[in-house]
Amino acid sequence: MENSRKWVKSFGGMILLFLQCLSLTFKGKTRWKEVIEQIFQVGVRSLGMTITAGLFVGAIMALQIDIQLKDFGAESFLGGLSTSTTLRNVGPVLIAFLLSGKVGAYTSAELGTMEVTEQLNAIKLLGADPIEYIILPRIWAVVISSFLLLIVGLMVTIFGGVMFAEVIGVNALSYVENIPRIVTEWSIVLSVVKSFVFGVLIAVISCYKGYSARGGSVGVGAAVQSCAVTNLMFIILFDFLLSMTASVFQDLFGVGYL
Amino acid sequence: MIVVSKITKSFGSRLVLDDISFEARPGESLFILGKSGVGKSVLLKLIVGLIASDQGSISVGGQKVDVENPGLLAQVRRKCGLVFQFPALLDSATVFENIAFGLRARGLVEDPNLIEPRVIEQMRTVDLDTSFLNSYPNQLSYVAQKKVSIARTLAVSPDYLLFDEPTTGMDPVATAVLNELLKKLKRELNVTTIVVSHDIKSALACADRLILIDHGKIVFDGEPKNFKSSNVPLAIDFREGVSLGK
Amino acid sequence: MNYFLKNRKFRWRREETLEQMYVLGVQSIPIIVVSLAFIGLMMILELAFHMRLVLKHDSLVPAFSAVLMVRELGPVITCLLLTSRIGAGIAAEIGSMKVTEQLDALKLLSIDPFDYLVIPRWIGSVFAALSLTMISIAVALGGGALLAAQKLGTSSGEYFNTVFFFVKFPDVLRCLIKAFVFGTIIPFIASYQGFSCELGSAAVGEAATQAVVRASLSIIIADFLLTYLFYAI
Question: Is residue A25 a part of any domain in this protein?
């Protein structure tokens, strides 16, 4: 019960932070220069990892779907099905996992250290709002970088799938031709929306965990770990919610069916 | 004048401050001593409203410190400067940007060209080499970082200066340098200073008045020369520590 | 790396091993179970969408989702979750022991840090990976059954029939092998990061982050290699 109270408090805190940041943004108080600096710090570092992951995830999905389809002799659908599943689901989730590990951990560690060394308090005392000066730029930076990295990663998964198809003897051209047959515009929309939402999740959760770190370097460590786990759980949760929404939407409007 | 009245604060089951009352009079240099980790820093955070007390009240220059009221709290903070135990400088900003931070955040200097001279003035006040203007905190020695942190606090011209354990973790030479700085600030700036410390030598050298806290209560409040002859147990321990150290 | 190569004899440390099995395995249950339940639900949704799209009927959805869970998502997602939960912890623990010179202290007491620290964590991690993968697949399938009943009109009887028809023993075996491999990757990478941690508290945090990132990426790469290996056989 003690634990669930902590969870509720955390969750409430995150929503509060999110709303505060929204309101500050609408008031035009975002410090864009810092945002750009942070994007370079945070985003560029993760590019290599994202591309590697994208290649392998694309290949794995192509492989698995191929195995399944072989049993049914439906291999011609490989390109479309593999790409569709990867873009709609597996891709965003797995790449977001990795991003939350790298970007999320970096951000929560940085903010956590700033908090426990009293830098954020010092800012308060000098008459500035630490959320406006320090946290908001980072949230925007993480949202933008994560979103862009996810899109890049997803495009790489397609490439990974194609390359792997060649390896197992499926014609690359027929693989790619099959894609537009199965990947609908709505699937792409879903994929992009998920990338954006995951970016926001990673940003808010990591910044909140860093900001609420207490108790010296042990506290920072605890914040980083909590950040990693919380990120994963929320990514999975929102993945389901968004898929569910898409599903309901599709049932209502009958879209996405051939 | 800062008036602390019947302050009580607990963290969980730990009673840290028990019915504490004292005054910091204008222009005086007040040292608050006690054993390490006892909660003296908590007192400073209560004064600037970073945390709220369980009971009692604090007023700064006639203004009540009310954690719930951001407007009043901002006024209190304009009058008080708090120098933290760790330099707490923004790592990704230069010395110049750190010192100028408060000036900019509060819009105290209208003409941007006037900011740099103000910053340099502060650096001179704390005896900091002005060639460090564009250096980053991690390029500076610990003492230099502390000086930047003090300069940053002074830049916004507070009426009251609060120091949290300024000499903790510093070698004797660095400590002496800092003590000289404290005395200089007192002479030249005429601010009221509250220093929380467990460094008895600094206190005896710099303080106008000394308060000793033991188990959350004030056990001594008076002048350093009276402290030297006080019969309070903790005072005796603190003095013995000094003479043993000789 | 020297530690790993020089060591030949392992001494069985019962208490530490049991403790690690509890901390790493049992305490991870709530998070893993909840997360995988959602994954199971999500699988049904996505597969239903694709099956309807391509094959125009969805009677095979339970079977496909079960197969994909067992072969792929079950071990991978469970172990990625496990990585974030225990990877940072192991790296940080060992890293801070290095920084505070406790590792040296152990060596002076003739206790090999590898026996004392790494082996129990390895056993605990593999235990966690295997058991949690099985539990989470069960939960995911359960969740899937509920959703399938609601969305596809499949009764639970039909659901489990098709599942057991399509999921064969080799699939289960491969799943467990994957879990074992992933469960080994995590503690070894995390311990390595901890042992090679530089001095200073910032470095401990760095080590922990690197542990999670490297272990996660390694799991994805290992998954690919294992899947390819199984497929080629």
Answer: no
Total domains present in chain C: 1
Residue A167 lies in a domain: yes
Q: Report the distance separating Cα A17 and Cα A19, nearest Å.
A: 5
pLDDT at A257 exceeding the cut of 60: no
B152 domain residue, yes or no: no
Please tell me the total count of domains within chain B: 1
Q: Amino acid identity of A124?
A: K
**B130 lies in some domain:** no
pLDDT at C8: 45
ipTM of the complex: 0.83
Contacts of C63 in chain A (CB under 8 A): none
- Interface check for A30 against chain B (CB to CB < 8 A): the answer is no
| Low-confidence residues in chain B, pLDDT < 50 | 245-246
CB-nearest to A126 from B85, B86, B102 is B102
Closest chain A residue by Cα to residue C205:
A221
Residues C179-231 pLDDT 10s: 999 999 999 999 999 888 887 767 777 888 888 899 999 999 999 999 988 87
Q: Do B88 and A124 touch (CB under 8 A)?
A: no
Residue B73 structural domain: 2-89+160-245
pTM of this structure: 0.83
Torsion sign across C-alpha atoms B176, B177, B181, B184: positive
The answer to whether the Cβ–Cβ distance between C209 and A221 falls below 8 Å is no
**Are B and A close enough to touch, i.e. 3+ CB pairs under 8 angstroms?**
yes
Nearest to A81 among C54, C204, C213 (CB): C54
Distance of residue A252 Cα from the nearest chain B Cα, in angstroms = 49
Specify if B125 maps to a domain.
Answer: no
CA–CA gap between residue B191 and residue B79 (Å, rounded): 10
Residues of A in contact with C46 (CB under 8 A): 85, 88-89, 243
